[in-house]
Write a structure and sequence with these properties.
The chain is mainly beta. The protein has one domain (2-51). The protein is built from one helix and five strands, in the order βββββα. The chain has one helix spanning 49-52, and strands spanning 2-6, 11-15, 23-28, 31-35, 41-47. It has a five-stranded antiparallel beta sheet, with no helix packed on it. The longest helix has 4 residues, at 49-52.
Length: 65
């Protein structure tokens, strides 16, 4: 998984897989999800990420029990 933030455009891309994208679905005006042929999620694109509170990410690390 990798994330890319485009500061000028306030766009956050969360890239989950290197599989080819075959379908993209808009969940609403600022959230777009791309899928591979097998139905798995390839990436999520968030428009106005900082304005909506999605960026910066709050990352928490935990240890397995």
């Amino acid at each position: 998984m990798r994330t890319t933030y485009f500061d000028e455009d306030d766009i956050l891309v969360i890239h989950l897989s290197d599989k080819p994208i075959v379908r993209e679905v808009s969940q609403n005006w600022n959230t777009h999800i791309s899928y591979a042929e097998d139905g798995s999620t390839v990436e999520v694109v968030l428009l106005e990420a900082r304005a909506s509170g999605a960026y910066p990410l709050d990352i928490q690390h935990a240890r397995a029990a």
